[in-house]
Amino acid sequence: MKQFLKYTLATIVGVIVASLLGSLILLGVVGAVAGSSEKVTQVKPNSVYEIDLEGSLVDRSDDNPVAAAMAEAFGQPEEKVLGLDDVLANIEKAKNDENIKGIYLKGGTLAGGFASLKEIRDALIDFKKTGKFVLAYADTYSQKNYYLASVADKILINPQGMLELKGLAAQLTFFKNTLDKLGIEMQIVKVGTYKSAVEPFINTKMSDANREQVTVYMNSLWDNMLSQISASRNIPVDSLNAYADQCLMFQPTELTKKYALVDSLVYIDQADSILNDYVDDYKLLTHTQMCNVPDNAKFKKDKLAVIYAVGGIDDGDDKGIKSDDLVETINDVAKDETVKAVVFRVSSPGGSAYGAEQIWRALSVLKTKKPLIVSMGDYAASGGYYISSMADSIVAQPNTITGSIGIFGMIPNISGLSEKLGFTYDGVKTNKMSDAISINRPFRPEERVMMQNYVNRGYELFVKRCADGRGMATDAIKAIAEGRVWTGEEAIKIGLVDKIGGMNDAIAIAAQKAGLDEYQVKQYPEKEDFMTRLLKSFGDDMEVRITKAQLGDQYEIYQKIRNIKNLQGIQARLPYELDVK
């Protein structure tokens, strides 16, 4: 009894201590956030907007003020996240503010998609038209970040630094051998020769069709990147390819200047001196400070809505698209009489075919009331194209991944695993098909036929939605469908996209179609309030943070496998998850 009381008392004390510690951490985080809150930024003369190109680039910032404080409280590195929406808005503010003389791109390892980086690059080109300067400095430039920095008036690099220029490579991870060892068979039903999302689970290497489309897609990305670097740096594309073949990042840094890829080899303190050559006694404005520079645009009664659809559709990812929530947002915008036109920003690899259909329906109703323009981000493929297809006009970047008009279903058969574990199954049923599509055994012949017909119907509906939306015959859509992926540059040639451009181009088209000269741009859905973000940070966000810390580089593989359990119904999803380097 004494021992029991001893351990019981120890447990109670432990719970109390843990609760107190948790409360102290919570108070500390809230206090840190409150203490670090930024006031409105007053821009002083001779200011320079500094964009720190580190961390991850996302379509829309999540305004999470607790992330840094929580990372410090739990002894973990802060995950830097840069919102494309904020960067583009800040560049526009910098362009129009006479006190801001230039932009300083600092660092060169920002992880982002090709299309998103091009949007920033295009905004910087537009910024330079005012006569203001752009200067870039980094110890190391990743390939994508050099593509972004190549637009700068001067590119600086650390004398001992690296500039990655080696071409693109794409890699797929295959799980078939692992599944075989576990005794799990993935049973596949699909439509589309190029619909290869299922390949990692049933093959050990890429199919010929998938290799073909990935090769075309990768070459298109690379050629587009080189052509723009060539134009900015006045270096022939053939020369850039020759430099890439040398794997330049492992060559002496001096070669980067010899090849005119950079202008100077300098240390960070010397970069400060070069900034002084552009602006005497300059003052740096951080990205956060720029976000707090007031937007002096006058209030306008008429609104142009930007609705964001980012991430997988109904795939269980808290940061992805929840079709029910998105439909509710679309319906609210459709009813808002002050909203005169809508830009639907899509950056999605697709997902649930059912979820995509519900979003399609809501957008189709909205389109009867006001102009609808789609702006495609890094990818708008499969289900992402499904929900884009009915728009009045589709705008994409040349390096946007789109198309992938195809559908698949994937049902595991775990009978082999059950046998290894000694499980057996028995039961009763009232009808012939009562136990249809069981994961405990292989498909029966009639079940496979039934599932294939189900997927075929989904594919025919997908094709019809695209044909109706694009004003094309179904046979014309089928000729470019089969699950094949296209870049925006290719898609415009085959009728899947109307215009090459970014978000600002889509907004201009929407305003023109609505006859708007003056308007206010409002983003939907509205960002979460402080307390909601705070509670999330202690919930799912913390789980992700801890899991990433434990698994490191293997976290992405873990996430892919975990998401399999969330695949419900037939899927309209990108044919692969490539690691492009």
Structure description:
This protein is an alpha/beta fold and 581 residues long. It has 2 domains: 47-166 and 247-291, Alpha-Beta Complex (2-enoyl-CoA Hydratase, Chain A, domain 1); 303-409 and 440-580, 2-enoyl-CoA Hydratase, Chain A, domain 1. 45% of the residues lie in helices and 19% in strands. The chain has 23 helices and 22 strands. Strands 11, 12, 14, 15, 16, 18, 19 and 20 form an 8-stranded mixed sheet that branches. Helix 15 links the parallel strand 14 and strand 15. It is globular. Residues 32-37 have low confidence and may be disordered.
What's this, in brief?
By secondary structure, this protein is of the alpha/beta class. It has two domains: 47-166 and 247-291, 2-enoyl-CoA Hydratase, Chain A, domain 1, CATH 3.90.226.10; 303-409 and 440-580, 2-enoyl-CoA Hydratase, Chain A, domain 1.
Per the CATH scheme, the topology name of the largest domain is 2-enoyl-CoA Hydratase, Chain A, domain 1
How would you state the average pLDDT, rounded?
86
Shape: globular
Strand portion, in percent? 15-25%
Report the CATH C-level class of the largest domain: Alpha Beta
Low-confidence stretches: 32-37
Which sheet architecture does the biggest sheet show? Answer: 8 strands, mixed
Query: How many domains make up the coordinates?
Result: 2
CATH architecture of the largest domain: Alpha-Beta Complex
